[in-house]
Amino acid sequence: MSQNKEHDPKRRFRIFGGQSAPISTDGKGRQILYRCPSCSKVWLQDGPKPLLDLAAQMLAPLAERLQADLEHLPLMPCRLCLLKLNAGSLEIDAYPESGYGLNYEEPGGRRLQLGIRPVKLLSHPMQGAAEIPTNEQELLALLLWFAGLDSSLSVRLFSQQENEILSREPPAPDRRWKGLSFVLPCPPLRDAVIVMILSALPVEVPLDAQETILLWKLLTALKAAAMIHEQ
After folding, report:
1. Do 141 and 215 belong together in one domain?
2. Where are the alpha helices (H) located in the chain, listed in sequence order?
3. Span 36-67, pLDDT tens digits
4. Per mean pLDDT, which range of 44-53, 57-66, 121-130, 190-199 is the poorest?
5. Which of 34, 50, 81 is the last residue of a domain?
6. Which one, of 141, 137, 74, 85, lies nearest residue 108 by Cα?
């Protein structure tokens, strides 16, 4: 007899960090502990109801009941941190050969781009155009990897000259591209990758590296959560 995916323990382990994910108190979902990548607080999704203000003395028995490792909880932005984000659209492209490009835009004009590509491919130009991602498991692993990065990691801010070159075609009349990059091993792509982030900002506003990376951590965590929910 085939086993229902929802009750497959390996599937639960991969998605929810080994939690048992019992039925919610109202019977309309599951109970799952998450850690917010923005504020680092632990919160409980109890079916359709999020519980944000968990007392410290509640965490240990709750984690034990859900078989959750508090040091390795799945990442999901809490509702309070989500309120800080305006509604926007996120598009993802798969690069030829390997890598991904993400583009985020808000109605008010905010725009950010994130590119992740293996370092070994930088010496030769891309062959062909970017396409719709088809390897969903690789994309999900990549999103979860980025969502789990340290927001304070060491990055290289682009020089004024580099930003001016990028802004030869400005994203908007009153905005210019400003960027940063860093190199890290990326297990989902099985290689070292260069990560490049661009943000469309007013001319006089400097790029805040930590804030920009944190925003992308939230966006990738949200997209990953949506993909998991659809599986």
Report:
1. yes
2. 9-16, 56-66, 79-82, 136-147, 160-166, 209-230
3. 887 888 999 887 778 887 888 899 999 999 99
4. 121-130
5. 81
6. 85
